[in-house]
Amino acid sequence: MVEVSTSILTVKDGEEAQTFLGLEKAKTDYFHIDVMDGKFVEKNTYNKMLRYSEYIKRLSNLPLDIHFMVEDVKKAIDDFGSLEPNIMTFHYEACKDNQEIMKNIEYIKQYHSKIGISVKPETKIENIYEFLPYVHMILIMTVEPGKGGQTMLSTMIQKIEKLKKYIEENNYEIDIEVDGGINLKTMNKVKKAGANILVAGTAILLAKDYSKIIEELKK
Question: How many domains is the chain partitioned into structurally?
């Protein structure tokens, strides 16, 4: 079954409540929280996403899908972990070595959250194979992280397929989430390749009817 995680990166100021409630009514599976620090990526959404996450927790029971695009992963885990997110995902590229990756995995466990690792487009998917027994999800970025509304890189389809094949060959139970340029034109390619959680922001939030887009993405 395919699930949808709606990125709230481009929610308009002053329309937060109606947007979040509208997305819940439209049956999005998760709220995707893009946490950026202005260092790992150019944009800085850190405080805004913390504020939005706190607001969502008061407003909705839907799970938070937190995506850290930050250099200081440990601090971000502390700041957002108190909100009891369903999953916290950090970037492979934010860690200086494999030891640091394992430390972040263990640290997230303390917050009883699921664990995800994200990889940028240029990172070889084989680099994260050794961590698969310890995580719940791999997030494949199909655009360069840090900006909304980009066009999906078609070469990422092979990356999804390669990861899916490796997961099946090793009998792992791991979600494959895909983020970047996901819309009604690109969704079938990533689903066919093996992705089972689709992150979409612009495609959903610009639609007149959230539920129609979300329903199509889930098919």
Answer: 1
